[in-house]
Design a protein that fits this description.
By secondary structure, the protein is an alpha/beta fold. The protein has helices at 17-33, 69-90, 98-102, 113-127, 166-173, 193-206, 210-213, 232-244, 258-270, 295-308, 313-325, 338-349, and strands at residues 5-8, 38-42, 60-63, 96-97, 138-139, 145-149, 160-161, 183-190, 218-225, 249-253, 275-277, 291-292, 327-328. The chain folds into two domains: 5-139, no CATH class; 147-349, Dna Topoisomerase Vi A Subunit, Chain: A, domain 2 (3-Layer(aba) Sandwich). The strands form four sheets. The protein has a six-stranded mixed sheet, with helices on both faces. α1 crosses α2 and α10 (295-308) packs antiparallel against α11. Residues 187-325 form the Topoisomerase 6 subunit A/Spo11 TOPRIM domain. Its EC number is 5.6.2.2. InterPro entries: Spo11/TopoVI_A (IPR002815), Spo11/TopoVI_A_N (IPR013049), Spo11/TopoVI_A_sf (IPR036078), TOPRIM_Topo6A/Spo11 (IPR034136), WH-like_DNA-bd_sf (IPR036388).
Length: 350
């Protein structure tokens, strides 16, 4: 068998990013023109720092000639990505999303947007050591919702998607006195978008309630949800927001089950600001509405309990209590009026 032409995906600091990609593409094209097989090597860059456990840690090798269909598919997909990135950098309005790239060739990515994302991270961030967002202006698909109460110059009466250019966008919206000691900013994170939407409507109609309103300090809210597990854009936004408003308090509301607490754990580990788990607590909800825990839930809870001992004692307590009672509780049944429950929780935390 003919020796393959080895093409390594690696940065060259002497070249522009588009030239690096064009050089890699040209090596592959030249080999094919000369009827030679190609071996594509994706090393693990020393400066890459990605915590996604679904991504490979060792260097990846894919051959253009192989008896394994999955290897051929991956090789073709990486070659396709390189060309997509080149075309993207050549456009005048060079901002796009991972979702947009995925839909350029759904079949090539096995009809999996997650696979497209993993391959982009592998080639751009792990192998080349670049940033998808900062260097290539490729953003995660927008998923997170945000709502501001008493924090913007003029009221925005509906929640909206967190924009990719959130820094510039929110700097134009924030009140001038937001950084003064007279204003207290509370960032509330919800696991479920239904709870998020209900609370936003409650704020618009009823305000913050008697408890918080009676305090001398003015209260401003930033309410956020990623509708379950958070996407990267929402995490980046929250990191920027809690850095921008250093005195803010961050409070989260999640289901008292292994999934809700796992979502809290994701925020806790990825936001560089203290975040308080404020509920729902199992014993604060009506036992009539408790749900049974199955064998799989119990196994997941047992494994997670050991990881949470040093992360958050409240979550550790909820897991051990739920495992003992074999019960779990959801946020939407904590009380007949969970919006008032949330307001009281925020009030006692200030």
């Amino acid at each position: 068998m003919m020796e393959p032409v080895i093409v390594t995906i690696i940065d060259n600091s002497l070249l522009t990013k588009i030239k690096v990609l064009e050089d890699i593409s040209q090596q592959i094209k030249t080999a094919f023109v000369n009827h030679k097989p190609v071996q594509l090597i994706l090393p693990n860059s020393q400066i890459a720092d990605n915590d996604d456990s679904s991504l490979p840690r060792k260097r990846q090798i894919y051959n253009s000639v192989s008896s394994k269909p999955i290897e051929l598919q991956r090789f073709a997909a990486y070659v396709k990505i390189i060309q997509i990135l080149i075309n993207h950098l050549k456009t005048t309005r060079n901002q796009t999303t991972i979702r947009d790239i995925y839909y350029q060739d759904v079949e090539m990515f096995n009809k999996s947007q997650q696979e497209c994302k993993n391959m982009l991270v592998q080639i751009v961030e792990i192998s080349l050591g670049w940033s998808l967002v900062d260097d290539l202006n490729i953003h995660p698909a927008q998923k997170g919702l945000v709502f501001g109460y008493n924090i913007f110059k003029s009221a925005i009466e509906e929640p909206f998607l967190i924009p990719n250019n959130y820094k510039e966008y929110f700097e134009q919206l924030f009140r001038e006195d937001m950084d003064t000691s007279a204003v207290s900013v509370v960032v509330i994170i919800f696991e479920k978008d239904a709870i998020f939407e209900s609370f936003c409507k409650h704020l618009l109609i009823h305000g913050v309630g008697v408890g918080v309103a009676s305090k001398e300090t003015k209260i401003s809210y930033m309410v956020v949800t990623a509708k379950g597990y958070s996407d990267l854009l929402t995490l980046r936004f929250l990191n920027w927001l809690t850095t921008r408003i250093k005195t803010c308090q961050c409070i989260g509301f999640f289901d008292s089950d292994v999934y809700g607490i796992n979502i809290f754990k994701q925020y806790k580990e990825n936001i560089n600001h203290p975040i308080q788990y404020a509920g729902v607590y199992l014993l604060e909800s009506n036992p009539t509405y408790w749900l049974n825990i199955n064998a799989r839930d119990f196994s997941l809870m047992t494994n997670l309990t050991t990881k949470l001992q040093h992360i958050d004692p409240r979550c550790h307590r909820e897991l051990t209590r739920g495992a003992y009672l074999m019960k779990k509780a959801e946020m939407n049944v904590v009380t007949n009026n969970y919006n008032e429950y949330i307001i009281k929780k925020v009030d006692t935390s200030l």
